Each structure stands twice: as C-alpha cells, then as structure tokens.
C-alpha cells in the first residue's frame, strides 16, 4: 500500500479557507491546472468511493485521465479496487480530505454513498478540484442550493453521473424527435422506475473487518450496522443498511425515487423543455406504500428497509397541459404522449410510430446536436459523458449534466419522497425554491449533519 505523507487537519482547513476566500469570481473566470496543461499531459484523478458503481465508471474515466489515487472507508474495497483498476500502484486513503489536500490531483470522481455526495463535492470544489459526482447529487433540497452556490463561486466543473444525458442512440434521439415537433404538444409522460427494495427484519451484526462504520455513516445519525444473509439463496445476496442497500433507507438516500428517478425523471423534464413547454414543477402528490409505519414523515421501525415500495404520483407543472406520472408498476422507461403521437424510450429501445417515421422523414442533421447543447458528441453513454466532462474542463464551460439543471429535476424527486413520507400533496414555488403551505414538509428540505461531520467551508 503506497501512502503519501498525511496533511494535518489544520493545514487542510487553512488551504480550503484560502481557496474559498479567493474564489468569489464569475463562472469561467478561473484558470485551471488542467486547462493549462499541454495536449500531451493527461490530468490526474482520484476515485472516492471504490464500491460497485465506482469500479464501473472509473475505467471509463481512465480513457481520459490517469487514475492515481483511491479512497474508501472499507479496506477491502481499497485492496480490490487497487488491483482491478491500478495494478496495485495507486495511492490509498481512508479519509477523502487527504485526497483533496493533494495539489497534484486535478479531478475527483465521487462514488461514495448518496449521503456523502454533498459534503465531499463542496469541499472538493473549495479545494480547487473539478468533479464527476454520481447521482443523486444530494440527500436534500437545501443541499442542492448550497452546491449550486459554491459551484458559481469557485467556477469548478462538475459533471453529474446521469449518463443518459449522453445517450445518442436512445435518449437524445428521443429528445430530438420531440424537439422537432413530431409529437406536438406533450400532455402526459409516464415514468416507470420499478418498485423499491424489500427486506425482512434485519438484525444487528458485527461490523465487517476493515470497514470504518462510523466514517461510513458520516453526516447521518448513528445507527448499528445491520446484516442478514438470505437463507434461501446460495449466492451472497444480503440485506443490510450498509454497502449497496443503503439506497433503501431514508437516512442515506431517497429510495427508488432518487435512484432511478434521477435518471428517468430527468429525461422526462428535458422532454417537456424540448417540446417548448414550461417544466417548472408546482406540485407532487398521489399514492404510495411503505413497509414500515410513519409518523410525521419519520419511519417508526429501524430494522427494515423504509423507502417507498410502491407509488403512483402525479407531478404538475406551470404548463398545466402536461403531467408526469411516476409509477412502480409499468415498464422501466419513459412513455411520452403528445397530440401527434407517442414514443417509449429506455436503455434498451426507442419505439413508436414517430420513430418509425424517421426512416422516411429524417430528422435534421443537427437535431441531436442541438439537444446536446451543440457540444461535441464524442461517443455514447458513459464514454461520451466522461468525454463531455473533460471537454468542459478544458474549455471551462458547463457540462451536459451540470448541477443547476440536475437540481431542478432532482428537487422533483425529493418532493416526491416527501409526498410519500407524509402521504399528501406537496406544493412548490419554483421562483423561491420553497415548499409552500406546509410547515412540516418545508422542514424536510434540509437535515442536520452529525457533529464532527459538518461541511467544512
């Protein structure tokens, strides 16, 4: 294990404070180490969070930058990732702050669990790093406001890992068809994101060797580690409140609504905009089901998955002609219905008569480029998404999945989660970015950070 000399907490805080005080300049005004490099010098990046999604996305990043450091609170993840990704040659860290203190690291990829995203990302931007951060970007609505503020102040480039925005074969082609008027005005969009996770009661268990459970919990409340292996399965299927299954606990995530919702609701809202309609949300409500009892939005049972299992929710917009219906019980994907036709798109197909008609009536040559903000199209899906990120770093521009447009969509996901937890319609003012007429719901726009894990500004 290669380790660099630790930077003291005092030194690190001094560095971030200096960067913060010097960074109140308009977006795009800052120069960067990456943009100043010669064409033959590749940027260096660190992977923070070396679990499943981290090891899936980092190899794509390695096409564009050199992966030189890994950080995780689980020693087993570090050892596995080092062998898999770096031939055992990476610098290894258990504390992400030591990564941010290294001035020879240009980029960080943040693939830690959802509840860590905001804290690490903000401190990375203040430390002068550009960042690729997995979705969902935040755990709460107010975290998104802070991220957007810091991004504008620092001018750092942040690409959110909603790689469907860089899908040329399916999602961008669907948006191009909509933008070309082939569906006419949209009136209904059905978003299928499947049911949420289920678990039996999960008992308290010993923390696995090598896992720093307190640091894994980080900003979220203290709770015991829980683990139960499914006795009906020969494989290592398990139920836990830790790795992978954190997304089924409101303490750490938003369930299916922020997991798959962050992908498909994103495309649905881009579709409304592509049709020339107003996609400012005004309310979210409907029906849902949890496997545990709730009181005032708080789960009353602590030993089972507690995010919404089922949901049938309606999102209304400032353009009252169109609605999004978020469901668990339809095909995974997005069904766009308009005055002139309908199309269905997911990661495996794009179908519908307006798509068939493209064969005889082709889209304009620049149709897909326009919905991709006229940025270079360099590949498809994950490859194109990382390429777009590095292009944006070089030119100091907003990437295709910037934090500002991402948070407008993600706020809908968060509002949906609050609606499910309180079992009522939530009303939203897009201008002030506030929940209106519901004091309890409005209080759920933020959460306190555990002492010792506050964001270091």
From TrEMBL:
Xref: InterPro entries: Gfo/Idh/MocA-like_OxRdtase_N (IPR000683), Gfo/Idh/MocA_oxidrdct_glycsds (IPR050463), Gfo/Idh/MocA_OxRdtase_bact_C (IPR043906), NAD(P)-bd_dom_sf (IPR036291), TAT_signal (IPR006311)
EC number: 1.1.1.18
Keywords linked to the UniProt accession: Oxidoreductase
GO terms, molecular function: inositol 2-dehydrogenase (NAD+) activity; nucleotide binding
Occurrences of domain Gfo/Idh/MocA-like oxidoreductase N-terminal (ranges): 44-161
SUPFAM superfamilies registered for this protein in UniProt: Glyceraldehyde-3-phosphate dehydrogenase-like, C-terminal domain, NAD(P)-binding Rossmann-fold domains
Domain of life of the native organism: Bacteria
Annotated ranges, domain Gfo/Idh/MocA-like oxidoreductase bacterial type C-terminal: 201-454
Catalytic EC class: oxidoreductase
Name the record gives this protein: Inositol 2-dehydrogenase
Native source organism of the sequence: Rubripirellula tenax
């Amino acid at each position: 294990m290669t380790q660099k000399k630790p930077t003291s907490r005092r030194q690190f805080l001094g560095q971030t404070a200096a960067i913060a005080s010097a960074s109140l300049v308009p977006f795009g005004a800052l120069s960067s180490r990456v943009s100043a490099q010669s064409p033959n010098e590749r940027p260096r990046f660190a992977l923070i969070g070396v679990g499943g999604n981290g090891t899936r996305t980092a190899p794509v990043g390695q096409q564009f930058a050199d992966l030189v450091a890994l950080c995780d609170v689980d020693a087993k993840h570090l050892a596995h990732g080092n062998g898999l990704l770096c031939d055992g040659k990476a610098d290894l860290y258990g504390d992400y702050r030591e990564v941010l203190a290294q001035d020879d690291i240009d980029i960080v990829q943040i693939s830690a669990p959802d509840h860590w995203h905001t804290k690490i990302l903000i401190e990375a931007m203040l430390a002068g790093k550009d960042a690729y951060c997995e979705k969902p970007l935040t755990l709460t609505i107010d975290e998104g406001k802070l991220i957007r503020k810091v991004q504008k102040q620092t001018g750092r480039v942040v690409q959110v890992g909603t790689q469907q925005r860089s899908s040329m074969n399916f999602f961008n082609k669907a948006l191009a068809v909509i933008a070309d008027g082939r569906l006419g005005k949209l009136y209904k969009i059905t978003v299928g994101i499947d049911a949420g996770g289920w678990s039996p009661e999960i008992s308290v268990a010993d923390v696995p060797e090598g896992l720093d459970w307190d640091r894994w919990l980080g900003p979220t409340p203290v709770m015991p580690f829980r683990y139960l292996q499914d006795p009906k399965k020969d494989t290592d299927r398990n139920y836990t409140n830790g790795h992978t299954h954190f997304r089924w606990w409101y303490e750490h995530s938003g369930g299916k609504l922020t997991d798959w919702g962050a992908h498909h609701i994103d495309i649905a809202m881009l579709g409304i905009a592509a049709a020339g309609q107003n996609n400012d949300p005004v309310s979210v409500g409907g029906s849902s089901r949890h496997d545990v009892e709730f009181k005032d939005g708080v789960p009353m049972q602590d030993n089972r998955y507690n995010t919404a299992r089922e949901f049938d929710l309606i999102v209304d917009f400032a353009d009252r002609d169109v609605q999004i219906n978020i469901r668990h019980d339809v095909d995974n994907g997005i069904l766009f219905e308009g005055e002139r036709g309908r199309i269905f798109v997911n990661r495996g197909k794009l179908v519908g008569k307006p798509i068939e008609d493209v064969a005889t009536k082709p889209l304009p040559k620049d149709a897909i480029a326009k919905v991709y903000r006229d940025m270079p199209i360099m590949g498809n899906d994950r490859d194109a998404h990382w390429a777009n990120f590095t292009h944006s770093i070089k030119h100091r521009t907003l990437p295709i999945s910037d934090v500002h447009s991402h948070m407008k969509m993600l706020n809908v996901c968060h509002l949906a989660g609050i609606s499910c937890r309180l079992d009522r319609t939530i009303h939203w003012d897009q201008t002030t970015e506030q929940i209106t007429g519901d004091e309890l719901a409005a209080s759920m726009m933020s959460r306190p950070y555990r002492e010792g894990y506050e964001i270091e500004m």
